[in-house]
Write a structure and sequence with these properties.
By secondary structure, the protein is an alpha/beta fold. The chain has eleven helices and nine strands. The chain has a six-stranded parallel sheet, sandwiched between helices. The chain has a three-stranded antiparallel sheet with strand order 7-8-9, covered by helices on one side. Bound molecules: adenosine monophosphate. Residues 29-30, 36-37, 39-40, 148-149, 151-152, 177, 179-180, 187-190 line the site of adenosine monophosphate.
Length: 283
């Protein structure tokens, strides 16, 4: 695997591959790689000639300074993981490489209600930061295929919207991969590394709550179900930001079941300041 820190070097390297007609898959990450990331890399490896991964803990998408400061960084073992899956290139830029003119930018992406609901509501500015870095990375890599995880369902919607807005949808295909889970159902996440044993055992309740919502869909209305799910999470010691049952296409809250509508349950909850998110399609 080749490790490149400069955008220009990566572009030059990719140029040679493209001239040979090779297809490029891209897996952007913030590092602290786990099997969820690996599943995206393997999906890319299976469908492209060249897989590029990036590791960049993007400061502009953290709305909480402590979350940024505590974000796990495990570059050495990440490189080993990437070598093992035979990823062809790792882009490991510095903050200055991505933001040569500093963070502040007047550019604002129009994300509609995605910016005011769920993650957008509880993490103000987060998706603007995500769009900023993803636009930069896409313009540098210009992949044929981009790989994202369903674990960050709303983020997938945001990035689809971004790609449309920056007129790259004819060029880049977005591939959304299923959420990989631990044996007890906890969605794999870099933030899980921060959980102590007790927190780790409680964290599986988030998935249990999602399963509860799915299982009881026929028995209770969505509002009642959400209330019960919130109460369970609070009882377990979580501080939930939201438990939502939403339309899968718009993420608008669902208040009554409608057999024609596809729905998804989404949860964000913190345990001792460690914020975890997960979702599950209900249909
Ligand atoms: P992150 O490093 O957390 O920014 O994630 C990088 C990519 O991996 C994003 O597209 C995530 O949605 C995806 N991802 C994170 N966790 C998982 C998981 N448990 N299963 C599948 N994909 C994941």
């Amino acid at each position: 695997m080749i490790l490149l820190r400069k955008a220009e070097d990566l572009q030059n390297w990719l140029e040679v591959k493209r001239k040979k007609g090779l297809k490029v898959g891209f897996v952007p990450t913030m590092g602290a790689l786990h099997n969820g990331h690996i599943s995206l890399l393997l999906a890319s490896k299976a469908n492209n000639n060249v897989t590029v991964s990036s590791i960049f803990v993007n400061p502009t998408q953290f709305n909480n300074a402590a979350d940024f400061d505590n974000y796990p960084i495990t570059i050495e073992s990440d490189i080993q993981v990437l070598e093992k899956v035979e990823c062809e290139a790792l882009f490991l830029p510095s903050v200055a490489e991505i933001y040569p003119n500093g963070y502040s930018s007047s550019e604002k992406y129009d994300l509609g209600n995605l910016e005011t609901i769920l993650e957008g509501k509880y993490r103000p500015g987060h998706y603007q930061g995500v769009c900023k870095v993803v636009q930069m990375l896409l313009e540098i890599v210009m992949p044929d295929n981009l790989y994202l995880g369903q674990k960050d369902f709303q983020q997938c919607m945001v990035i689809n919207k971004l790609i449309d807005q920056i007129n790259l949808s004819h060029k880049i295909k977005v591939n959304i991969c299923p959420t990989l889970r631990e044996n007890d159902g906890l969605a794999m996440s870099s933030r899980n590394m921060r959980l102590n044993n007790l927190e780790r055992s409680l964290a599986a309740s988030i998935y249990q709550t999602l399963l509860f919502l799915k299982k009881n869909k026929e028995n209770k209305n969505p509002i009642e179900l959400k209330k019960m799910a919130l109460a369970t999470l609070i009882e377990k010691g979580f501080i939930p930001d939201y438990v939502e049952i939403a339309d899968e296409l718009s993420l608008a809250p669902v208040t009554e079941w409608n057999s024609k509508q596809k729905t998804i349950a989404l949860v964000a909850a913190s345990i001792n300041e460690i914020r975890l998110i997960d979702n599950l399609r209900l249909d």
